[in-house]
């Protein structure tokens, strides 16, 4: 029996969640909306509370994934209640009740191909070691994303 590519990605997200001891892991990717515009959607997740993440559609520059997509840089929030003024602009924090999180771009050359987010449902200090671990785990996901795109 062959393991599907989607199952490999899901299994890897579970491993990442357990290794980093985070409450939620998500992978956002580009999609095309009905008008042919590029939007960002949370495609793969681990330990989600519900399926509302599937309805989140972000423009580049909006929401956590959209900001990371636009800047191609990590984005860290240690206390969403304090650090985010308009939580409606960050729907994943609401639907998954995330308080502390870090999102990292997965790059193919200089182009963002996905955003990996690790989040906690309680306030947590996110140090550079945590962010570095998240970045290093991106290397494991990148080859699978090339298969998705290819």
Structure write-up:
The protein has one domain: Beta-Lactamase (2-Layer Sandwich). 37% of the residues lie in helices and 28% in strands. It is built from five helices and six strands, in the order αβββαβααββα. It has a six-stranded antiparallel beta sheet with strand order 3-2-1-6-5-4. Helix 1 (5-20) runs antiparallel to helix 5 (128-149). The two termini are 22 Å apart.
Task: Furnish the topology, listing elements before pairings.
Elements: H1 5-20, E1 24-32, E2 38-46, E3 57-58, H2 63-71, E4 75-77, H3 80-83, H4 91-95, E5 100-108, E6 111-120, H5 128-149
Antiparallel strand pairs: 1-2, 1-6, 2-3, 4-5, 5-6
Task: Jot down its keywords.
single chain, 150 residues, alpha+beta, Beta-Lactamase, six-stranded antiparallel beta sheet, 5 helices, 6 strands
């Amino acid at each position: 029996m062959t393991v599907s590519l989607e199952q490999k990605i899901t299994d890897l997200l579970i491993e990442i969640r357990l290794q980093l001891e985070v409450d939620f892991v998500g992978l956002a990717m580009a999609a095309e909306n009905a008008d042919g515009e590029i939007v960002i959607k949370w495609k793969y997740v681990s330990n989600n509370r519900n399926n509302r993440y599937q309805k989140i559609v972000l423009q580049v520059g909006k929401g956590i994934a959209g900001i990371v997509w636009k800047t191609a840089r990590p984005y860290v929030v240690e206390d969403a209640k304090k650090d985010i003024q308009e939580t409606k602009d960050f729907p994943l924090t609401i639907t998954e009740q995330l308080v502390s999180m870090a999102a990292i771009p997965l790059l193919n050359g200089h182009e963002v191909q996905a955003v990996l987010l690790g989040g906690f449902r309680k306030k947590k200090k996110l140090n550079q070691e945590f962010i570095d671990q998240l970045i290093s785990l991106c290397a494991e996901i990148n080859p699978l994303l090339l298969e998705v795109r290819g």
